[in-house]
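Exam revision sheet. Question 4 asks you to relate a sequence to its structure. Input first:
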Amino acid sequence: LWHIEKADEALAAFYVVRELRHGFELHHIAQFIASASKSKEIQSIATLEQELDWLDSLPDPELRPGTLKAIRILKSVTAEARVAYHARSPLNRSTAINRAVADLTSLIETGETFCPDPEWPLIKDIAIQWKEIFTKFGGVVGEVILRQPVLNPYQGYSGLPVTGDCFVGRFDIMRQIETRWANKGLIPVLILYGHRRMGKTSVLRNLGQNANSENIYAYLDMQKAGWVENTGQLLFDFAKAIQKVVSKNGIDIGLLPDPAQFLSLDAARRLFDSLLERINERITDSQRLVLAIDEFELIEQGIHDKRIDPGLLPYLRAINQEYTWLGLIFAGLHTLDEMGRDYQSAFYGQAEYIRLGYLTRDDTLKLITQPHPDFALEYEDELIDEIYRLTFGQPYLVQRTCWELVNRWNDLFLEKGEIMPRVLKLDDLKPVLTADFYRSTGYYFEGVWSNATEEEKHLMHLLAPFENKRLSSDELKQEARRTGFVENETAFNKTIELLKRHDIITGDEAGYGFASELMRRWVLKCEESSMKAGGM
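Answer key, structure tokens:
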């Protein structure tokens, strides 16, 4: 019956022998061919996916392996049909259609080499029919995409943390962190440092995205908890963050005591110790609990203001050493690293430091061109190169610049409609780098500036006028002497090293310059504004 392409009659015949050896397989093959040949639209193809679960539970060794290989390809196509039909994102639908058409084309062209007769002519007809259905449906979806403004996926444009699919790059940093936590036994305190808006919070927020990791992450932002009145309140905030995540991960440690019981430092430490003991009794050998504390320098500020007891740091170090399942990672400004260098305290001295600097060029290009799976614009190569030159891979500046470009494209699209090219070009950049751009990004630039020493600021002013030239060490020293920077050689070299460590300049004695061209322009604009204000 298959030879004369009568699928329904073949199904009825194989139904009779379905209980015999290999009968299950032949009956289900016939059943699928009969159903698939009647599928005339995307929705009906999508419903076939569930009907193919039998492929994974054959009771006998495969009798028709070539046929089953072809049907498995068609099963993957049914999964793409489900995405194409149900996904809300037009781009996700379009991508699924493209994958399905590619699979069907490959099957049509090569299926004869592995799928035997009499099944092959029937399966080939199905593949041809389905390809026409997907192609027609793809045209409809494509028209929908072309009629819509573009989703702006650059979530980090405001400086807020980026998570999920929009978190691009930093895999080297994540790997460094995971490597340090991979071994059994005591794990070191980690300090993640870098200047403002380098993505420290995003890294902490994305810890635990590895599906194979059993680590439990408790995140605490010191911007919210930093204004506690005493150490006990801070320990309560730690306890609350920990209790929340361990409960979600099936570790029942009961409810926390009333916050009022944490007001006394001694009582707070005993209650926190009790919390850790309860976790210690219930956590498995393969699990780790990681307390990730952001803006950690605010704890130092609290100690300086005498709101937080200096003994907190030795206490954190002690519990980290007592419980092998407890990990601590702190993120903050470069001053955290300098605390470890300048104050040989047990806490900072024994911590391991991970520096978060600029994105690599490859990660920057990926962030620009592939910020999200649904992104529907292309970038001209010259524009990509210029964005990298302007930002040097500073993630916030990359996100902000690209966000402005997409917003402008959407504004033009609403005016011009479908005739708008879906390619961003170098000429699109100048209209977004306006005074408004620098006002919007001012918090970032001012943050970098405010964390620099007076000596650093002086050298930044000296470098700012030079866009296409890098000053050698001797030239920079000459400029410094000319403008009244009369520090000795040691002080000059220390300032240069600080500027490099703080990710403001790059280079060596042969030539120094701003890492980020946008930072150079901001410094130059501030200098020009200052001169105008002074009547110069």
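Marking note for examiners. The chain has a mean pLDDT of 83.
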